[in-house]
Amino acid sequence: xxxxxxxxxxxxxxxxxxxxxxxxxxxxxxxxxxxxxxxxxxxxxxxxxxxxxxxxxxxxxxxxxxxxxxxxxxxxxxxxxxxxxxxxxxxxxxxxxxxxxxxxxxxxxxxxxxxxxxxxxxxxxxxxxxxxxxxxxxxxxxxxxxxxxxxxxxxxxxxxxxxxxxxxxxxxxxxxxxxxxxxxxxxxxxxxxxxxxxxxxxxxxxxxxxxxxxxxxxxxxxxxxxxxxxxxxxxxxxxxxxxxxxxxxxxxxxxxxxxxxxxxxxxxxxxxxxxxxxxxxxxxxxxxxxxxxxxxxxxxxxxxxxxxxxxxxxxxxxx
Amino acid sequence: xxxxxxxxxxxxxxxxxxxxxxxxxxxxxxxxxxxxxxxxxxxxxxxxxxxxxxxxxxxxxxxxxxxxxxxxxxxxxxxxxxxxxxxxxxxxxxxxxxxxxxxxxxxxxxxxxxxxxxxxxxxxxxxxxxxxxxxxxxxxxxxxxxxxxxxxxxxxxxxxxxxxxxxxxxxxxxxxxxxxxxxxxxxxxxxxxxxxxxxxxxxxxxxxxxxxxxxxxxxxxxxxxxxxxxxxxxxxxxxxxxxxxxxxxxxxxxxxxxxxxxxxxxxxxxxxxxxxxxxxxxxxxxxxxxxxxxxxxxxxxxxxxxxxxxxxxxxxxxxxxxxxxxxxxxxxxxxxxxxxxxxxxxxxxxxxxxxxxxxxxxxxxxxxxxxxxxxxxxxxxxxxxxxxxxxxxxxxxxxxxxxxxxxxxxxxxxxxxxxxxxxxxxxxxxxxxxxxxxxxxxxxxxxxxxxxxxxxxxxxxxxxxxxxxxxxxxxxxxxxxxxxxxxxxxxxxxxxxxxxxxxxxxxxxxxxxxxxxxxxxxxxxxxxxxxxxxxxxxxxxxxxxxxxxxxxxxxxxxxxxxxxxxxxxxxxxxxxxxxxxxxxxxxxxxxxxxxxxxxxxxxxxxxxxxxxxxxxxxxxxxxxxxxxxxxxxxxxxxxxxxxxxxxxxxxxxxxxxxxxxxxxxxxxxxxxxxxx
Lengths: 319, 676
Known about the structure:
heterodimer; A: alpha+beta; four-stranded antiparallel β-sheet; 6 helices; about 30% strand; B: alpha+beta; six-stranded antiparallel β-sheet; 23 helices
């Protein structure tokens, strides 16, 4: 029984994939919009039944008139409800990456057809958002989804629906907006571990006695430089943004190695993730070494993102 | 006290789903609009109760008060139910059912927690509009209810709309939907087959409607409403008698107990067709066929002095027509009538005389005295009758469908000397009483008078509002003779149908207001126009039923076969749908696209052909760069094209000058020229 059900579901999804293919921008049309009476619509039909009995039993022409009018309104409502979704364009916007356990924020841009407005558009997965799309403006619906597993995350088809204007009919569609959402492993902040096995609670590369004395000179600030290293004194004097440069000791550049961690793959990636964040925050130069993947030591936000991305897409047991 | 009751359940308010406040106001207004027309037949306490409930709902909406608790609600329901029961002790009629329904509707806003509740209220409002049509169907009322329906529809849209949108916007949308629904409604109204009732109504909406019954109590009826229900149709073979002679005899109400007139119970010898037993002179008969609607009664109708021809129909000794079985469905029968015949000229049998002279002892002394004084001044019966009839014309007697109640005793006295206002039964009753009191045999006959002649279809239609009662008097040598005292008051009734007679009566009442005394031409004209309109409304819309539908189909399509009609119906519908679809799609209308963008569309089309497509996130310049990379030999042209396009779109606000146009047109030609 359950097999049969999943079979039907699979076929349904395959049919949907063919009919409404996934895309980063989708314009709803008669191909993708379904329409059916809502719960309130069925109650309305019951009302029509009562009025029908009233009209027939009392042989009342005006009651017949009311019956036919309400029936016609229901019929006309099909067109109006359909029009409240038709030609609405849904655009996926880039998603900021997040860590496992955080929430991914998917923004859907709703673009109306020129000169048209849309009311009470409900969209989302499960818990939905309701938005109005006024004339000639783009509206944004922000949907949230909890990141559960690491890796590239592609959300399911979302349901977009409306019962406007009468509430008697529901027009809906299942759209697959292509989002490129990256979920990093959940960071575990553990002390750095040397391959040799010694535990050092101070920072790597700081085990030499020189510390901050290794000041070497200034260079022009570049985006991505650690703010802790900005020469604020000089900035205050009006000399512009400068970054303090330290003597580039061999120890300052370190490798974060997969093999230095313990536990299963996920645990190891989590620890590496923690280390990357700690290194970045401290402004160190770091590289990562994963089996089959190596990223040369460097600094800056984009470097960090590159490293985290490498962790995210690292093949794991669950993938 | 109430306030403390309200404050107690603060916790409930958390369960309110937001319903836009404008929508809530619209729903409350819709309730008021739908209940107002019912106020006429509602006990006043319900209106007070309604005001309290709606006020409470309004206060809830403003956040001042709270929703009532379950206990308070139960208390209210019990109070309402028992009040309705006490008000309508007589039993469950339409009025009490409607009162209960409305009381329930008024309670509902006190649990208007969310959208779903609002929908239920909206639906109940629609239903109440439908119910109101059982009471009133006049054209003005119909217009009022149309406005109400648009308002309810507007409230329904408002429920669905966000809080930001205005109520006016909702009403506008509702009006559009309404307008679009009307043509379809008209088609359905005309074509959907009508059918007979499923079961007999437990609630009779016919209370006090004109129609026939074998007992009438004139003094009790305070109000008669017109029913246009079809009673029978007549097809004449040969010439048709004049409208004034069309007295369709149905029942003879010959027993009077001081208040009610009823048919006396006695052994009736029925001569069944084809027994044509006759006595006296006959003259030339009028032959006709009556197609009578179901009445669930045995009585049939015929003109003065009928002989039935169809088997299973018969004639009683007092010339009533009867059927062997109760008429449970349409029944058609043929009758010969002998208008010149003289019935019982030799004299009445003793038992007949006894019946037609019987009066309750000692009642109505004033009437008796008055008739005796009249008789003493006249020589014979005919002169006395003439005097009586003239009395109704000379004295200020009014024909009215809303006569004053006559009380329990001496009802004839009250009518003759006091109220002087009534309809046919009052006049006929008074005259029969007067004649019997001085020893002249008389009886009240009830049936229908006149009917509407359909020139096209060549038949006469008799409806409930043609119901009438008149008097038959026995005179030596002349036998039974017909007299119509009501005609003395409102002669129009004889020449025309009740429609006009009633118009006349409204006219008479207007006299009291001094309206028609103004004698302003255009007001009169307007009033007559309105009367005519109302008549057409009744004729074409209100009485559009199974028969009218079949007549219409016959006139239009020459057939009443449903399959044939369905074909016409479907093709009409298909044609209309096609028109509507064309109108919506407007295939002849191209959307307007500025010229420079049309150049860009050409570029897009070309690049698509060459496997380069613009991504939704790409700007014009980015796309241009990518194109240039794909087609290096055209890079310069593409760049110029894009730069001009960007300049037009973002610098000149989409306005193109001649230089731009020349450049764009040149570039696009260069680009699209497919030389590698």
